[in-house]
Specification:
It is built from 15 helices and 19 strands. The protein is an alpha/beta fold and about 475 residues long. It binds flavin-adenine dinucleotide.
Length: about 475
């Protein structure tokens, strides 16, 4: 019998499966889609390759959880350091988010002058450096006692940062700056949204500072697209099955039975990388269904609308841009478009002289029900975003070679989730209310951005690291 069956090959599923396999545990990894990686995969359409969602790898440096996991399975990805991490375009102003604090302060002072800028950005910088150097905490949810004990492990963090945890970020910003204009606030909010997946009014200042400061940490471009990381991580694994959806799971005495459409697999432990909102339907047993159902309320129905474009151009583009306009784009819930370009020398993803572009904007799942209007709405938003992209980055119609779009319904079809970006860590949904990587059900575990700790590579990897501790592997 298998030791571990991992259901889903997103950041969480693929990395824990690769780790367990490398440690010698008999492990199988199931993926419904034809590509590994879920929201961080790479796909091919009309002969062109695109990153599905994620485009930036954060956390690949010595001592950081992302690199530590790769190191532990002996995988060395082909990466390129990205600095500035993003170039922000707003009202014709261009603000590169350099890693170096002084270099960035020069930009921010020029484009958004304020007497408190130095003090504010230094605080954001310091909080980021301090947080990522703390270790020794974990989060369990398998029983009331274990949960209480695990929460105690956060005492050093709470003591160190309490004054920032306990205050709402919007209140803090208002008080700190003594009022800032709409343009500067939009500049901050758009960046907060990338990492925190929420507005400053919904989160505490500590989460806000981590979101605003991720660009001070090392970020990397992945050669060949994000999907290359999953091919790399799984290269030595003995049992990886794509196009293999787990339809049903039965809990037996001391083991689980997992059903695909044409086979049944038995494993002592199951690790689910499906979202917690979708996991209940995999089981018939009411106690397990009820466990997952109680987390369905965390589903904020937030998601992304995607634009995938191939262009032909000799211009050298940055890897990432964020275009901020004054008003929301119709059909979205945001005024900011995140745009990522392939590297000019990355011929694995786009031929020489071509760029593969992945652009995304926040939207609401409920806006994208497949009704009579769906196709027209999709075309409208696709054209609006393309127009903004072309205008802000000076791209001509004649340079567009391919252009497609995707809605939350497209994600549901391919990777069984329409909510994207995971659980936002808001003032209401913080640690004790989040599902953990363990459960009260023996042998049943979770990983991914809808459980502890958060979304994105660093957030999901914190969860993988936590799971490693809980499994004692
Ligand atoms: C538009 C967008 C841009 C982003 N940009 C970045 C970025 O630049 N950097 C960053 O770090 N993060 C980014 N993120 C966030 C990041 O992509 C996600 O947080 C992360 O990839 C989620 O990983 P996960 O482990 O939750 O797995 P998921 O991505 O949710 O993947 C889960 C996998 O499980 C499979 N699955 C589900 N159910 C079953 C089943 N029953 N049987 C078999 N397989 C199943 C699915 O098909 C899927 O492949 C972005 C997200 C989006 C949407």
């Amino acid at each position: 019998m298998l030791e571990y069956a991992v259901v889903g090959s997103g950041v969480g599923g693929c990395s824990i499966a690769a780790y367990l396999d490398a440690k010698g545990y008999k492990t199988v990894l199931f993926e419904k889609d034809s590509n590994l990686g879920g929201c961080s995969s790479t796909f091919t359409r009309n002969s062109y390759m695109y990153n599905t969602g994620a485009t930036t790898l954060a956390g690949y440096k010595d001592g950081h959880i992302v690199k530590s996991l790769f190191d532990s399975i002996g995988y060395k990805p082909k990466l390129l350091a990205t600095d500035p991490a993003i170039v922000i375009i707003q009202n014709g102003k261009t603000s590169p988010r350099y890693r170096d604090l002084e270099k960035f302060l020069t930009v921010v002072e020029q484009n958004y002058p304020h007497p408190k800028n130095r003090e504010f950005w230094t605080l954001v910088y310091e909080l980021n450096k301090k947080f990522y150097s703390i270790d020794g905490y974990y989060y369990s949810n398998s029983s009331f006692l274990k949960k209480a004990l695990s929460l105690l492990s956060y005492t050093p963090i709470f003591l160190k940062f309490f004054r920032y945890f306990s205050v709402n970020a919007k209140t803090f910003l208002d008080h700190f700056f003594g009022g800032i204009d709409k343009e500067y606030l939009d500049f901050l909010e758009a960046q907060i949204m990338i990492v925190a997946q929420a507005k400053s009014s919904e989160i505490n200042f500590f989460t806000c500072a981590l979101a605003l400061g991720y660009t001070f940490n090392e970020t990397h471009y992945v050669y060949g697209g994000m999907g290359a990381l999953f091919d790399g991580m799984s290269a030595d694994m003995k049992d990886v099955r794509v196009n293999s959806e787990i339809k049903k799971i039965e809990k037996k005495e001391g083991y689980y039975k997992l059903y695909t459409k044409d086979e049944v697999i038995e494993a002592k432990n199951v690790i689910l990388n499906s979202t917690v909102y979708a996991s209940a339907k995999l089981f018939d047993e009411s106690s397990i269904q009820n466990y997952y159902k109680k987390y369905e309320k965390l589903d904020n129905r937030q998601s992304s609308f995607m634009l995938y474009v191939t262009i032909k151009s000799d211009v050298e583009f940055a890897h990432h841009y964020q275009i901020i306009q004054d008003e929301k784009f119709e059909g979205s819930i945001s005024n900011a478009l995140f745009v990522s370009f392939s590297d000019k020398d990355d011929e694995q993803i786009a031929p020489k002289g071509y760029y593969s572009i992945t652009a995304s904007i926040h939207t609401d799942v409920r806006f994208w029900q497949k009704d009579a209007d769906y196709k027209a709405k999709k075309e409208r938003l696709k054209n609006l975003l393309l127009e903004s992209l072309m205008k802000n980055l000076d791209i001509q119609t004649s340079q567009i070679i391919d252009c497609i779009s995707a809605t939350p319904s497209t994600f549901a079809k391919y990777i069984s989730r329409s909510q994207l970006g995971g659980n936002a860590i808001t003032m209401k949904n913080f640690l004790p209310f989040l599902p953990s990587n363990d459960t009260p059900i023996k042998g049943l575990y979770n990983v991914g951005d809808t459980v502890y700790a958060a979304q994105g590579w660093p957030g999901v990897m914190l969860g993988v690291n936590n799971l490693k501790k809980l499994l004692h592997v």
